[in-house]
Structure formats: structure tokens, C-alpha cells
Amino acid sequence: MAVNTRGYGLAHPVYLDVPMMLSFLAYLEGGFAVSETEKTTASGARERFLKARGGLRAKLWAIGEANVEGEGSTKNTDQTQTESSTERHHTEASLFNLLYEYLVADEEVIQLEESNQLEGLYTGQLVELSGEYLGNPIEDVLSFFNAVLPYVAGEDGTAAQDKGVSGRQAQRSGNPAKRAAGAQTAASKDKDNSETIYLLKRMSQDIDNSPVHDVLFRTESGLQAVVTASSLYYSTTTAEYLRAGQFRVFGKVTKVVAAGDSINLTRRTVVGAAGPDMAKGMVASVSEQEDLHLSIANPIVPGPTVQVLPMAIFI
Questions:
Q1: Which terminus of the chain has fewer CB atoms gathered within 10 Å of its CB, N or C?
Q2: How far apart are CA 306 and CA 43, in angstroms?
């Protein structure tokens, strides 16, 4: 007899699109209930206020009245004065576990592992993939920028100007033309720094205001998947949970990207509108700094790849 070393396989979502999950459950079950009240009499008879649909989905409590015909009722009463009452409740995560279990058992989910599986894949299919979270390179750059900004900018957020040093250098020069040129160079540099900081701040605002986050996952075989997560359920806490970890993504295919095509992970910002070269250059300017040792993914994801609208990201 084989020994199960994996336990129950309970899923713990760190990202969960609750409306999508509940709509799937409601369709499959003809409605559902998130709580159940059970009364037990002294003689052991039970009166349960629920309607379960004939055993196929016995773990889910279906919505219905006690007199609905055509569905199995678990109502059983006894004429006694002593009784106890118990309430049981589903959580959002437990409902997802039930839905996921049903869909997998019914073989409705495609397990994605390798790029050659994308040839027969089409939009709308339910898929699951397990892989490493690589994040979004432009979000990683902006996160680094926001962390170091207080050290390189003034109180108003503009580029800090070392006017004291520039002034002393100009005073040491006896050549008026050299003093003027030095002052002009310093002013030009300060202007460039201010414009760069302004651009990064605007991009950071674009990310914060975007309703969608593009995040990248990579399976052990090398297949990359772009996951378009809703900002309603994707928080900084979610990103920290996912960082440098192996997770499973469950959702629906929204696009299959063929070889020769690509997805630009900076498309939610002004950099994405400027094209892939600017995106690569910006990320490279940060990731290639020897003193920083930052590991940032390529912002341009080449095909073949797949784009997934996630219901859940879980472990």
C-alpha cells in the first residue's frame, strides 16, 4: 500500500479572485451557501437546514428551500425538548479548495509545464502551472528607486543639489570663464537628475494606479507565463509572499503568444508606450550596476509564452 507523504494537499491562496471563484461555484452548483445550521436532538435525530444536491457535490451546501423537489433532503426531525445547535461556515479559501478539487477530479484543468503544450492551447481554457515567481522588472526597478529616493533627493522629492561643493570649486578657480562653465555643467546635471527622478515618480504612480499587475512566472522546464493579476487582490504583502518562491497559478488562458512575438512587461507605464528598446535600456541601467547586485528579469518576454488571468496563486 502506497504511503501518502504529501498530506491532504490543501491549497493556501496568497492571491484569490473571489468573484471569479464564486461565479464558477454558483454555476456548477446552481447556487451555494457559505454556512450550515445543524440541530441535534437528545435522541440523536438531526434536523439540518440545508439542501445538498444528491451527493455529486456533497461537500458544498447548495442554496434551496426545504420543500424543493427533485433534490435530496437531509431533514429529519424528532419530537423532543432537548436539542443542541451547531453552525459550520466555509471561508473563501475553503470554497476555493472545494472548487479546485472538483475541477481537477473532473479533468477540466490542463497542467502546463513545457512550451510545446502551447500549440494546442486556446483562449478560455483552465490551466495550472507551478513555477518560480520572477515578478515584474519595472516594478522591481521602481521599488528600488522608491527605497533609495530619500537618500538622493531633497525634501520636496527633487534631485539634491550639492551647491556647497560646486560653489567652493568655482571660488578656487581664478578663471571667470571656467567658473561659469563649471556652474553651467552643475546646473545641467541637476536638471537631468531632476527629470529622471520626475519620470520615475510618474512611472511609480502609473503602477500604483493601474488596475492590473503583470507578473512573470517560470516553470522548471523554462516555460514563462505572464500572469495578469487584479490590483484588488494583489497587494505589496502578496508580492512579498511571492518573492523568490515556488508557487502554483490557477486560471484561464487569455492569450497564447507564438514564437517571434512578445509581451512587454512595462506596458502599464509610459515606458511601455515608448517601445521595447527603452524598456530594456532602463532595466539594464539598474540591473547592470556592479555595486547593486540586483537580479531583475528581462522586461520583454519572448514567445512562445502564455498569458493567464489568475483565479488563484497558491502554495
A1: N
A2: 59
35-41 β-sheet, strand order: 46-49, 35-41, 83-89
Residue 122 burial (CB count, 10 A): 8
User: Is the domain of 299 the same as that of 283?
Assistant: yes
Confidence at residue 6, expressed as pLDDT on a 0 to 100 scale: 57
CA distance 296 to 210: 21
pLDDT in tens, 178-218: 555 555 555 555 555 666 677 777 777 888 888 999 999 99
pLDDT score of 69 = 42
The total number of structural domains in the chain stands at 3
Helix, strand or coil, per DSSP, at residue 3: coil
- Say which residue, 182 or 270, is predicted with more confidence: 270
Q: Does the residue 278 lie in any domain?
A: yes
Closest CA to 276 of 285, 265, 260: 265
Q: Tell me how crowded residue 109 is: count the other CB atoms within 10 A of its CB.
A: 16
Q: Which domain holds residue 93?
A: 13-63+82-105
> Which of 236, 216, 84 has its CA nearest to residue 147?
236
Examine residue 68 and state whether it is found in any structural domain, yes or no. no
- Beta strands (DSSP E) in 25-72 are 35-41, 46-49
Task: Tell me the three cell numbers of residue 87.
Answer: 453552525
Contact 116, 220 (CB under 8 A): no
